[in-house]
Amino acid sequence: MDSSDPVALGRWWAEALGWVVVDDSPEEYEIRPAPDRMPGLLFVRVPETKDRKNRLHFDFRPDDQRAEVTRLLGLGARHADAEAEYPWVTLLDPEGNEFCVLGVRAA
């Protein structure tokens, strides 16, 4: 994932996902579900800032959508500008990357 601050963004996503840090280099910061478990996410420093919608979009599907949104907002996520009446909540990570928190999957 391109980032202006890979360490800060990588730490944020590690906390959001409950993953562990496997490389805390300031230029390439890597997190994984467990130290020896793949795939992981690699955060790489780039000079440009995000200027359009993500091509890769994460969706969370928690048991309790409201509690998960509250938790992620507490970590520093923020609501996306365009809030509509959907069964999901669109949030932004600290660098403005969109992701959604879905409701429980229908049986």
Structure description:
Pfam families: Glyoxalase_6 (PF18029). It is a single chain. The protein is an alpha/beta fold. It has 2 domains: 1-47, Signal recognition particle alu RNA binding heterodimer, srp9/1 (2-Layer Sandwich); 57-107, 2,3-Dihydroxybiphenyl 1,2-Dioxygenase, domain 1 (Roll). The protein contains 2 helices and 8 strands. It has helices at 6-17, 65-75, and strands spanning 2-3, 20-24, 28-32, 41-45, 58-60, 78-79, 89-92, 98-101. The strands form 2 sheets. Strands 1-4-3-2 form a 4-stranded mixed beta sheet, with helices on one face. The radius of gyration is 14 Å and the shape is globular. The termini are far apart. The mean pLDDT is 91.
List the helices and strands and how they pair.
Blueprint: E1 2-3, H1 6-17, E2 20-24, E3 28-32, E4 41-45, E5 58-60, H2 65-75, E6 78-79, E7 89-92, E8 98-101
Short structural summary:
The protein has two helices and eight strands; from the N terminus they run E-H-E-E-E-E-H-E-E-E. With 107 residues, the chain is an alpha/beta fold. The chain is globular.
Features:
Signal recognition particle alu RNA binding heterodimer, srp9/1, 2 helices, 8 strands, 107 residues, 4-stranded mixed sheet, globular, 2,3-Dihydroxybiphenyl 1,2-Dioxygenase, domain 1, 28% strand, alpha/beta
